[in-house]
Amino acid sequence: MTRGRTAALLLGLAVAGSAAPTLGAPLVLQPCRLDGLATEALCGVLPRPLDPSRPDAGRFDLHVAVVPAVARHKRPDPVVFLVGGPGQSAIELAGPLSAKLARLLNRRDLVLVDQRGTGSSRPLMCDGDRGDGAGRPLVEVLDSQRRVAELAVCRERLSAQVGDLRLFTTPLAAADLDAVRQALGVSQWNVVGASYGTRLALELLRQSPGSIRRAVLDGVVPPDMASGRPARPRQHAGGVIPTCGCNGGRCWTACRARSRWRTRGPASSRPCR
Fold first, then answer.
1. pLDDT tens per residue, range 228-243
2. Most CB within 10 Å of its CB: which of 11, 101, 186, 233?
3. Are 140 and 270 in the same domain?
4. What are the residues facing 193 on neighbouring strands?
């Protein structure tokens, strides 16, 4: 090879290298076991600023898990699954998600991130989120005024524990996700969002459109839609209480009994909703 051709080749490589995307520092992943998975996954944490506009405001550990692809020669673009809620832990759903996305996992890694405020990433938990409210009467659960009062108490407690709750937002969660992508050394990935996860996916598309190869939105929650609380809980419950004439834990039993009666009773009888 002549000097001229060698110089041209080196120049071409230099130009190609300068055109490549700038990727963040690597994320250190260690073998780990996740519930519902028969094989090992890879887990790690990525330190993230709580408030990107104020680096001195503190940091938190963003928890990340990667379920490796089955094939030896896998595709370079993994799949990141954005779960619903908001409030679900993506990593805790590794088992069922891997089963549902088995075909994708043949050739692509599955990336799961506990977004800020969920799972192990500085979780925001009210008492009812821990299962403390299990067995409460349905009329009590659907009492809007009671729920608002309970949320106010929870908000005061969480504000004292973690600080400004306005730092746990969808735009900041999307920025965290893109930081994970860069830390993994991935130039593009495929995004799958379900329920609230679709809103997070839309924000990710807005912030980093070039980093997403494909996006699948299932059960879209658009940015202009209020999520996380029904406006009229009794209507959302399908009128169960007034229709079935029951309360507490006996409601569903009464409804089932009435439904069975309806199948044998006159056609004009009122259905149990």
1. 554 444 444 444 444 4
2. 186
3. no
4. 82, 217
HSE, CB side, 13 Å, CA atoms: give it for residue 237: 20
Give a yes or no: residue 45 inside a domain: yes
| pLDDT for the residue 228 | 56
Same domain, 99 and 141: no
Amino acid at 245: G
Residue type present at position 77: D
Q: Which residues of 128-152 are buried (b: 16+ CB within 10 A; e: fewer)?
A: eeeeeeeeeebbeebbeeebeeeee
pLDDT of residue 175: 95
| pLDDT for res 131 | 56
Residues 6+ apart with CB under 8 A from 218: 192, 193, 194, 195, 198
How far is 100 from 105, CA to CA, in rounded Å? Answer: 10
For residue 129, what are the domain limits? Answer: 125-166
Beta strands 110-113; 30-32: pairing state: unpaired
Q: Is the omega angle on the peptide bond into residue 86 within 30 degrees of 0, that is, cis?
A: yes
DSSP letter at 23 equals: P
For residue 190, give the nearest of 216, 211, 174, 214 by alpha carbon: 214
d(CA 145, CA 148): 5
> pTM for the full model?
0.71
Instruction: Kindly state whether residue 157 falls inside one of the protein's structural domains.
Output: yes
pLDDT at 271: 42
- Comparison of pLDDT for 80 and 21, the residue scoring more: 80
Pairing outcome for strands 79-82 and 59-67: unpaired
Task: Select from 255, 257, 213 the least CA-distant residue to 237.
Answer: 255
C-alpha 189/C-alpha 201 separation (Å) is 12
- Amino acid identity, residue 106? N
Residue with tokens 């729920």: 147
